[in-house]
Amino acid sequence: MSVNDMFYPKDKEFTKAEKRAFAREKLVYNVTEDILVLLEDMGVNKKDLANKLGKSPSFVTQILSGARNMTLGTLSDVCFAIGAKPSIAISRESTLAKIDAIWTEIDDTKPLRPKKATELIVKSIRPITPYKNAA
Amino acid sequence: MIKTELETEHKGSKFTIIHCKGALDSFHNAMKSVDAKRRKSFANSIIHQIKRLANGERMTKENFPQEGNLPKRPGQHNTKKFNALKKIPIRGYCWLSEKHSNTYYISHYVHKDYKRLKERDSTRVENNWKRIEENGDER
After folding, report:
1. How many CB pairs below 8 A link A and B?
2. Rounded-to-integer distance, Cα B47 and Cα A128, Å
3. Could you give the angle at the alpha carbon of B72 between the alpha carbons of B128 and B104, nearest 5°?
4. Beta carbons of B62 and A44 less than 8 angstroms apart
5. ipTM exceeding 0.85?
6. Is the pTM here over 0.80, yes or no?
């Protein structure tokens, strides 16, 4: 049973674009939530982080809410600023055959049945130094 | 979306998340106030939050804040709180059950375009809590 079944009928067919958007939102939510958890643990607010990054508080709010795209460079800067080390793993979730099947589906206009896709996983963001010692 | 085909329960690796009776209907009502183009994105956000909660991963105070008090049991001194799955402006009010181990119940959803928690929302959580935790309704 999937959480999706709470909000979408089981026989709902997702288009490739919908699946791509879902995977993107999942990654953005989990990465930003991991960063926010760390900030809360360290007692660092968004204003402090903005100062460390030399950016405006609204910029930090936007990237941590997912309203604004965070580049890998910004992710690295955020982690550096709070003395954290991002751990990123990119793995194949399913068999090569299934992956090949995904890549052969090139028609975005046709709905596809749900399939597992290659997924980018940000495993964890852990502090490597206390905040006060961070750059 | 055909509501009758929807599941009300999700079992993660640590917690089971259950929508109370009428909770999914309240979600669809709350979504009526959201820009139609963004509804899918909002639904997906709540899905990701429920998945994370069910898997026992840590949630932030920012996106999973404590929003109000649960009723006290006889002899209970400390006040327990209920939380909200938060994706502005949507809130899904929920509590960790004491009657059913490792189970969160989602009472209902609201489109919260106001600051302070409304009494009607506290009352609705309270009624669902009493129904499930005290009267043994649902499960």
Report:
1. 74
2. 31
3. 45
4. no
5. yes
6. yes
